[in-house]
Amino acid sequence: MEHALSHATLSELRRPRPYPAVSVLTPTHRREPLSAEDRVRLRNVVSEAKKQLEADPSVTRERRADVGGQLDRALAEVDLSHTEDGLVIFAAPGEHQVWSLARPVPERVVLADTFLTRNLVSAQAAGRPFWVLSVSADRVTLWNGGVDRVVEERRGGFPLARRRENFDAERRERVGDVRSAFRDEATRHFLRDADTALSRLLRENPRPVYVTGEPAALSLLDEFGGAARDAVHIAHGGLAHASPDAVWQAVRPVLDAQARREAAAVKRELDSARGHKSFAAGVDELWQNAREGRIRLLAVEENYRITVRDDGGHLIPAESGDLDAREDIVDEIVEQCLETGADVRFLPDGTLGDADGIAGVLRY
Questions:
Q1: Residue 173 neighbours by CB under 8 Å, 6+ apart
Q2: Is 294 in a helix, a strand, or coil?
Q3: pLDDT one-digit tens code per residue, 288-313
Q4: What is the secondary structure of 38-73 as a DSSP string?
Q5: Ramachandran class of 205: left when φ > 0, alpha when ψ lies in -120 to 50, beta otherwise
Q6: Cβ atoms of residues 288 and 282 within 8 Å
Q7: Among residues 338, 346, 327, 342, which one has the least CA distance to residue 283?
Q8: Is the per-residue pLDDT at 164 higher than 80?
Q9: What is the pTM of this model?
Q10: Please, what is the Cα angle at 200 between 197 and 204, to 5 degrees?
Q11: Which residues pair with 201 in a beta bridge?
């Protein structure tokens, strides 16, 4: 299953496909007892997708068999023991993908000539993805970070490792000879290669970066003046060889403190916007402004959801299952704001007070 959404991957997903490109969305659960129902729900929604293929007169028999087979293969790849809060299946002639999202999605099936990506985009923004680079004198490990964990990322040449006769960086660290482990030219060259690899990665997939390592290693990266110098440094050695949980426990306090500072800054900006009449709140007002590209900053509480329908140019509250109900309007607004260059921030529930879960600062 896929988790990380890069700019290149998103562009590929948005590429027009031969009809039908099928998007299947379903909520999932991380824990019992609700997680036990996910397999039945998933089978049912895939069956619904096949029924829609059967009922569509514009889908040829060959296409129907092809896409139906892709849906079956996607279903077989789903590992519900490792799901998060939402699951998305994409299937088109000759291809399929399965995405696990750390954000709920509505249950739905869409047949079109492109895949439905708004929920992936919103989940990516809400997840506040980041990179962690853990450095030592003999190994540099890259970690892919999200809402509540990190996992090792094997891409862009990472992990970097070197072997040398009579070389034991960890032994040097244990006996207090850390600084000398980072003085020799071979180690400098090794860490410079890691810094260069990080720079290449960030050009393709820019995110905030946190670098962990012994102070001597962090100082050396500062000296190079590359991408690692501009990252947040965490003086914690031994994580290049550690478990994902150990890395998460090391970076979590830094992430939490940064999130508190950012939430306070967003609140101050929203308060200032009220005084300058550039404040907007509520899904209807924000949807109108998002379509016009007027939103500069969008703030959304993490678990804010609302179902609406279009009542002649305005959005009004609706019940799930109502005709023309739009259950993922928040994700639509998030995607539209990101498309027009807005800064989108997800905040803890209750942060926005009387703004009722979603608010923004207008450009004009």
A1: 136, 181, 214, 237, 238
A2: coil
A3: 999 999 999 999 998 898 999 998 88
A4: HHHHHHHHHHHHHHHHHH-TTS-HHHHHHHHHHHHH
A5: beta
A6: no
A7: 327
A8: no
A9: 0.77
A10: 140
A11: none
